[in-house]
Design goal:
The N terminus is likely disordered. The chain starts with 13 loop residues before the first helix and ends with a helix. It has 199 residues and is of the alpha+beta class. The protein has one domain: Aminopeptidase. The protein has a seven-stranded mixed sheet, sandwiched between helices. Helices cover 28% and strands 31% of the residues. The protein is built from six helices and seven strands.
Length: 199
């Protein structure tokens, strides 16, 4: 099942560029230590139950260009609740990432492939590395579950998202012509976790 990551709304990557200015040749593979992100006002947690579904849907529908049915949300969230990471401030949902993990057996070895399906951060909370933190936390969960690589799609016009993912170690894997419903092309991005995140 292929789900579009049509309009990944992450904060401008100027902060990530500053973080990586001393090591431009290497991906930033450590979770951010930005003091704003670590503020007690912002709380991160995995999906708890059906009562949170409506808030996730409203957030995604407000900021993503691709229309998703409730069945799509339930497919991802009910099957991989630990890979739906949410950010809240004073009880208000301000950002979330929705992912999946396909587990497989290759050459008698159990492995997994992660997929970042949706990501959104409320506009007034951007430029605080919340989107970056959500992605890092989801990737760390995938690693715990035995994931070896993560993929996603991003619009070719979404320069901020492409730059941010590049700084996190993702590489361009495939160009997808007219991938989205709005006829915009996309890049499929891939992150190899063994080389980028595992010590």
């Amino acid at each position: 099942m292929s789900i579009n990551n049509s309009d990944i709304l992450i904060e401008d990557s100027k902060n990530s560029e500053a973080t990586n200015s001393s090591s431009k040749d290497q991906p930033n593979t450590q979770p951010p230590n930005d003091p704003i992100v670590q503020s007690k006002e912002i709380v991160y947690h995995s999906y708890h139950g059906e009562e949170e579904l409506e808030g996730i849907m409203q957030l995604m529908q407000e900021y993503l260009s691709e229309p998703y049915s409730i069945y799509t949300y339930r497919y991802f969230i009910n099957n991989w609740p630990q890979l739906c990471i949410m950010a809240s401030c004073e009880g208000k949902l301000i950002g979330t990432v929705v992912c999946q993990l396909e587990q497989m057996r290759i050459d008698d070895v159990d492995t997994g492939k992660g997929y970042i399906a949706m990501l959104a951060v409320r506009e007034e909370f951007r430029k605080q590395r919340i989107g970056t933190t959500l992605v890092y936390k989801s990737i760390q969960k995938m690693i715990e579950l035995g994931c070896e690589e993560v993929i996603l799609e991003a619009e070719v016009t979404n320069k901020g998202a492409l730059r941010l993912y590049s700084n996190m170690g993702f590489i361009k894997d495939r160009y997808l012509h007219r991938y989205y419903l709005n006829a915009v092309d996309a890049w499929r991005l891939k992150l190899f976790l063994k080389s980028a995140y595992k010590n």
